Amino acid sequence: MNVEPVAESTSELKAPNSKLPKQGIAEGVVNSIPESWSIEQVAQWLSSIHLEKHIEKFRENEINGSLLMSDGLDDILLKELIPPLKYRIIFNNERKKLRSRQQQKSTISTANTNDIRVTLKSTNTSKMVKDRSLS
């Protein structure tokens, strides 16, 4: 029986690359709240919209989700981060999509909260009327 030493057989085993495919990254990042993104999540988002060349500038300038979504990241600053006009246009279009998604989520969340408040007020008022009639 021919048995190879354990050290030799395990030394050839390599762990698979742990990076997620771009589509998986994009889904995970986009489904979270952009304002709370870390610098790395912003980098993942840039990669998902095919702006990998500009990730290093965003990291150097510590652009996190809060800064990404703020109005402070205007055209002048963006020109320093992403010099080619074509890519700035892509960036702005994608950022608008993020803002739009976030607004839709906020609107839905607010609508659901308002529905709950109306229901609770209605219930409390009914209870108060019943309590007064018992007195």
Automatic annotation (TrEMBL):
This is SAM domain-containing protein. Residues 37-98 form the SAM domain. Pfam families: SAM_2 (PF07647). The lineage of its organism: Eukaryota, Metazoa, Spiralia, Gnathifera, Rotifera. It comes from Rotaria sordida.
